[in-house]
Design brief:
By secondary structure, this protein is an all-alpha fold. It is about 80% helix and about 0% strand.
């Protein structure tokens, strides 16, 4: 248990420092072109995200996919609104409904698995 706690805290520290490092890289004066710097930062962030995703079970992957789709669409809409492209606002309600449906489905599956495990009784393994 001690090593698990150490690993958990080490992970949290690493993620915090990684985020700060990427923010620092984004704020630094670019030595080369802006797009190369952005690509490098994006690649680092995507690499860490993909590494975490490989550890997900089916339900966590579904929740992540729904949340990621939602947050990416929100960012796209925010940038569209700032840039003056207001024609894409209608898709927000469709996106929100899709995310809510996927999240509810994933949570129902998690709940039904937890319920079936609790009905098995102590000492029973999957």
């Amino acid at each position: 248990m001690r090593e698990l706690v150490k690993s958990t805290l080490g992970f949290s520290l690493a993620m915090s420092l990684f985020g700060l490092e990427q923010l620092r890289n984004g704020l630094r004066r670019p030595e080369d072109k802006e797009t190369k710097r952005e690509e490098s930062i994006r690649h680092g962030l995507d690499s860490v995200s993909q590494s975490a995703e490989r550890q997900f079970g089916e339900q966590a992957q579904r929740l992540f996919d729904a949340g990621d789709k939602f947050q990416r669409a929100i960012i796209d809409m925010a940038f569209d609104l700032v840039s003056g492209d207001k024609g894409k606002e209608a898709r927000f309600s469709d996106l929100a409904a899709d995310v809510a449906e996927r999240s509810a489905e994933a949570l129902r599956k998690v709940g039904s698995q937890d319920e079936s495990r609790s009905n098995e009784g102590p000492g029973t393994k999957d």
